[in-house]
Amino acid sequence: MDDSFPKEILKISDGLKKRKFSSVEITKEYLRRIKAYDREINSFITICEETAIESALEADKRIAKGAAGTLAGIPYANKDLFCTKDILTTCGSRMLSNFFPPYDAEIISRAKENSLVMLGKTNMDEFAMGSSNETSYFGAVKNPWDLRKVPGGSSGGSAAAVIANLTPLATGTDTGGSIRQPSAFCGVSGLKPTYGRISRYGMVAFASSLDQAGIIGHSAADLAFFLNIIAGFDPKDSTCIEKPTEDYSRNLNFPLQGIKFGLPKEFFKTELNSGLQQIFANAISLVEKLGGKIVDINLPHSSLSIPAYYVIAPAECSSNLARYDGIRFGHRAPNTSNIEELYEKTRSEGFGAEVKRRVLIGTYALSSGYYDEYYTKAQKVRRLIKNDFSEAYKSVDFILSPTTPTTAFPLNEKTDDPTLMYLQDIFTIPASLAGLPAISIPAGLDKGLPVGLQIIGDYFQEARMLGVANKIQQTTDWHKLTPKSNSEKKL
Amino acid sequence: MTVTEEEITTLGKLSRIAIAKEDLDSYTKQINLILKLVSELNKAKTDNISPISHPLDLKARLRKDIVLEDIPLEEKQKCGPEVENDLYMVPKVID
Amino acid sequence: MKENWDLVIGLEIHVQLTTASKIFSATSNSFGADPNCQANIVDLGFPGTLPVINEEAIKKAITFGIAVNANIANESIFARKNYFYPDLPKGYQISQYEAPIVANGKLRIHPTEEDSAIIIERAHLEEDAGKSIHFTHQNYTGIDLNRAGTPLLEIVTAPSIKSSKDAIRFLKRLRELVTHLEICDGNMQEGSFRCDANVSVRKSGTTKLGTRAEIKNLNSFKFIESAIEFERARQIELLESGENVIQETRLYDEKTQETRSMRVKENEFDYRYFPDPDLLPVVIDETVIESIRASLPELPDKKRSRYSKVLNMSAKDTNLLLNSPSTSKYFEDSLSVGLKDPKASFNWITGELFRLLKKSEVDISDSKVSATELGLLVLAMEEGSLPKSKGKEILNNMWETGTSAKILIEKQMSESSLSISDLENWLEEVLTENHKQVEEFRSGKEKILGFLIGQVMKKSKGRGDPRLINDELLKKLRAQN
């Protein structure tokens, strides 16, 4: 038996079906790697050794019967924001550090039905609030490219685990960039689909009108296969769309000839360092070489994206997090003498500082006297931003931008100004506000750190968008770059 | 628009989060920085614009009035920190 | 002193809708389950769970709106009302704020008086909270979330009710309406129909509203009336001694028959309403409204009018029948056997049948004697084939044994009728005393037989079986020929 396993989903699938190796073998190998290397990175909160091997055994049986789909037997990891039945689900928070949900999130159910093998739950910023994975109660995640740097957030654990080869695929969630930004920082591919394309049932809510489940992996093709399994209508989620899904891998060989790519003028008012600028310019040239046409477009209100987001997301989160009161689940402060004390102590102990800040802001934005000035205003600006995109898509098929304004920054950059972190999301937030699908793919390295290219599509254009990304990945090796590390063995 | 320490304390009470005295100053400063960021919204002209309720402007889907089977009581209640005789117990509630 | 003051009352009624499942979750919506056995993970607000709107709740709200001639919103929005209380699992209640489903309806206090109409400003849908059980001696409270998520229609009137009596009349009318529409079972003891009263006073002749107090925890008409009266007196006393009425929530204490202030918490009333991002705007188009309008059950006022004009029932009797839709249905079904006098059926239903129902603690819809059976019994008494004195006995027998009216009546008639020998004397007497009629019969006037039968019945004081008498008389008359 060859002891090196392929990383690409189709190749793993092929290997399993042809009995070159079993699901149990590849699962055990990933588990070994996690145990060996994750101490340094801290990308996993929970490792599910027993259940993983059980699932792998089941998957092998199914594969042997010939009754298995493409992803059967393939290991993957789940961001700890998704409820997994009887398996610890913490959301990176002390508040849920003892929470064992009695049910599975919808995407987890679908993955189980397709016999994927869950390796464990990945680390994340607390309740998905953050862009550096430093707010987790379970400690920060380190960027495998440079352990002194952040992996990005809030899906930092998932992105780090993929690039460190601790899992070939991982789920994430994206509210303002929480899949795309860590994917960029870690040099992996990360997809946020159209809002409502994937069920939010069982995905712990942060900002309901923005949250979307998504996928992180080594390539756009891999993401397409996983999207096929988890996308689609779920009657348990009222915001989930009934529009039928499609085979998201059908357009992987999408020809770029004549396809128009917009570059938003307003995005380039942000100063990028010369390295990033160069990398982005290279990516644009490549797209043109592949037949794409570059068009300047305007997204006039995009500078208001961050202010709008930082009203809407905290407002919704302040309400979504009101259920954490120590009564039916989760952390409960001991020795309290009345209900008010129970509430205050439980919530003050259970939540970290960033979460508290956002709850306070959100409460402020919704309170009487301020509601119109903040919340209503932000939702109006949101419509302006959405309209900007609609206008742009009249003249282009996709929009391109760098995913982030910088590469991974150092851990523990102490600052008293939380808004500096918020500016990280400057390129990712607009698509979130509009509910548009977007993907980040690796575009090269700047001083040894990955840089991401963001492609934003129009509503429900995931298949073609993945095709564009795949085309780029067929022509380049950026997505194959991995951190040079003495301890990393070839998997 | 800026908030005072007193207002932060009030917000804390409204959201049932106790803010320790020693942290009050930094929370107030940080939140004021966020409010400054957010005040950019005032620049936008939104006179005839309606607020968004859903990114795709969809309308509600209704479900049929059917009862579906539930998870057993023990499975739900084992998550509960304090359950007695199937009731969720909390310390004294003053009415 | 008190004559200078006008009382102003606005009512908020929470009506629990009789859907099969809850408003945002697929849990059963029945009453009386064991603690927390009827609360699923959505009701419990578990992380990651989401609400989905029950179409039946929407339909019932529309039904109400149509019945009170209100405006049904083309697009209505569910909003979150944020506050902390242990019986509110999510830390917010899904309700409606700026865009309620129903607005600007009317309901008359007196059915035939147009200017007794009270404006219903709005009716909106929301979910109910759970229940708290206070173990005061142990300083603990137990939370039962069975009721969390039950669909409520909150009906809000304009502050234009002028007396406590009118308030009660209005509430009775509203309860009658929602039960007849089959959207609510009207059971105040079980909490399906709950009322809060907003009470204020103002100097007679002025139009500015005074400061109001909201009285909660009123679960019987008697308490509502008493609470309003107490509140009126309390407010007048305050104002007359130069003090102000505080806008606050007060609870009614049935033991002392007084209202007392609830603890007011700072900022308690900032609910920070905003549209629920987990739910989308509900669009209701005309075709839906029209199809509901077409299938509305007969409204109580129409029934009332019909009972009065067609059946000649008095208003008082009608009100009693309309107390529950199952009673009026039973009544109407009983008439289907062809009774000429509805009042007779009314008397038997509201008299003996009600007594039997109460004794067995059974609702009329579960009556052991069906409406048609009762109807047949009353018909027999109407036609004279059963003496009225026997009615109670037969009805009780029907109740106990389940035997049909027909069988029992026939049995009664044959038992109570006289044997032939008993009859002999009376037959002879009648034939002797009515010599002239006997002659007439013999000369061919056969119809005179009826008169002779009647004479025998008179002598037997109704105990005779008319058919038997008929046969025996004929025998005698023909024999003597």
Keywords summarizing the entry:
heterotrimer, A: 491 residues, alpha/beta, 15 helices, 13% strand, B: 95 residues, alpha+beta, two-stranded antiparallel sheet, 3 strands, 35% helix, flat
Describe the protein:
The complex is a heterotrimer of chains A (491), B (95) and C (481). Chain A has 491 residues and is of the alpha/beta class. Chain A has helices spanning 9-17, 23-41, 49-65, 106-113, 156-163, 180-186, 220-230, 274-289, 305-320, 339-350, 353-366, 372-392, 419-422, 429-434, 462-475, and strands spanning 44-47, 75-79, 117-122, 169-174, 189-192, 212-217, 260-264, 293-297, 398-402, 438-446, 449-457. Chain A has an 8-stranded mixed sheet with strand order 4-6-5-10-11-9-7-8. In chain A, helix 4 links the parallel strand 2 and strand 3. The longest helix of chain A has 21 residues, at 372-392. The two termini of chain A are 13 Å apart. Residues 486-491 of chain A have low confidence and may be disordered. Helix content of chain B is 35%, strand content 9%. Chain B has 3 helices and 3 strands; from the N terminus they run ααβαββ. Chain B has a two-stranded antiparallel ribbon with strand order 2-3. In chain B, a hairpin with a 2-residue loop joins strand 2 (83-84) and strand 3. Chain B is flat. Chain C is an alpha+beta fold and 481 residues long. Chain C has 3 domains: 2-288, no CATH class; 298-416, no CATH class; 420-479, Arc Repressor Mutant, subunit A (Orthogonal Bundle), CATH 1.10.10.410. Chain C has 15 helices and 17 strands. Chain C has helices at residues 55-67, 164-180, 221-240, 286-294, 300-309, 315-321, 325-335, 342-360, 371-383, 391-401, 405-416, 420-433, 435-442, 449-459, 466-479, and strands at residues 5-16, 53-54, 71-72, 75-76, 79-82, 92-95, 102-108, 117-127, 131-135, 140-144, 151-157, 193-203, 213-218, 248-253, 258-261, 274-275, 282-283. In chain C, the strands form 4 sheets. A 9-stranded mixed sheet of chain C has the order 3-7-8-11-1-12-13-14-15. In chain C, strands 6-5-16 form a 3-stranded antiparallel sheet, with no helix packed on it. The longest helix of chain C has 20 residues, at 221-240. The model of chain C has no long low-confidence stretch (mean pLDDT 90). Chains in contact: A-B, A-C, B-C. Chains A and B meet through helix 9, helix 10, helix 11 and helix 12 of A and helix 1, helix 2 and strand 3 of B. Strand 3 (87-91) of chain B pairs antiparallel with strand 10 of chain C, so a sheet runs across the interface.
